[in-house]
Design a protein that fits this description.
4 helices; single chain; 90 residues; 77% helix
């Protein structure tokens, strides 16, 4: 967005600095208007992907399902330890 404004006008408005934090950028209404439809599309794709997986669960061999279950368990453990590590650092 910043690049397109700069290319069109040759300069940036004072209320749109180039180096801002993600939080400040996310609070900008123009950025929110750009992100909203992209987020909606991403959610639709993710839901479609998950529904396809869940609809075909009966045709997935047991071994593959077991592997997926193990990955899920390891991910939960990893996320728990990651969260604890961040709390200790703070």
């Amino acid at each position: 967005m910043i690049n397109s404004i700069h290319d069109e006008t040759g300069e940036l408005p004072e209320d749109l600095p180039r180096n801002v934090t993600p939080e400040i950028a996310a609070s900008n209404p123009d950025v929110q208007n750009i992100i909203a439809p992209r987020l909606t599309m991403l959610m639709e794709i993710a839901n479609s992907f998950l529904l396809t997986i869940m609809d075909s669960i009966d045709s997935v061999p047991y071994g593959i399902r077991w592997i997926c279950k193990q990955i899920r368990s390891l991910t939960k453990v990893s996320l728990t330890f990651s969260h604890l590590a961040r709390e200790i650092e703070c």
